[in-house]
Amino acid sequence: MSTSSVSNGILKFTAQFSFYSGFITFGFGVIVLGGFLPIVIASSFSALAYHNVRRIVRRQLPIVRRKLDKQITAMVLMRVIAFICLVLPYNAYRIYAINFPTSRSVPMAYAVGRLIQAIFSSISNINFLINFYIFILFSSRFRRQVKFVLVKRCWQRWKYWCCQIDNQIEPDNNIEPRNSQIESEENI
């Protein structure tokens, strides 16, 4: 065996091992644990919640409780739908990028790949801030609570702190003697 064939074998092994370790570390961790597993868990639990609400309708429960359960189930279902729509494109791109990597030697293709990754990553990060808006849209009770907190608590505190008006009458401590008293003092 020549030294060049051994070094070629080592280089092939190193390339394959780096691909394998990159797939396990970044591919498996990001794609399965960070993407598809949460999607599967969220979807299954939202289906269970939907099934539970369908079963609650048949039971003898107060109407208010049934209405609140429907609202919370609608919120959960919309949250899961938004989660799937926002996270799935990034996961699909990561699978594509792992299976078909672009080399830095082709700068245009590499730049396009990084741009697409940045766009999908940004869309995936919207997942973390959209909860408030989904809950505002789908729950009247949540809207009332937000209005109460913002208007009654925060606005009143800000108004008191910022726009405090001194609206009380205070006695004037600088008492000036009247003209008649001044004249009487001059006469003395």
TrEMBL record:
Protein name as catalogued: G-protein coupled receptors family 1 profile domain-containing protein
Record GO cellular component, one term: membrane
Organism of derivation: Adineta steineri
Lineage: Eukaryota, Metazoa, Spiralia, Gnathifera, Rotifera
Residue ranges of every copy of the G-protein coupled receptors family 1 profile domain listed in the record: 1-135
Parts of the chain that traverse the membrane: 20-51, 72-95, 115-138
Keyword tags: Membrane, Transmembrane, Transmembrane helix
Chief place of localization: membrane
Compartments where found: Membrane
InterPro entries the record matches: GPCR_Rhodpsn_7TM
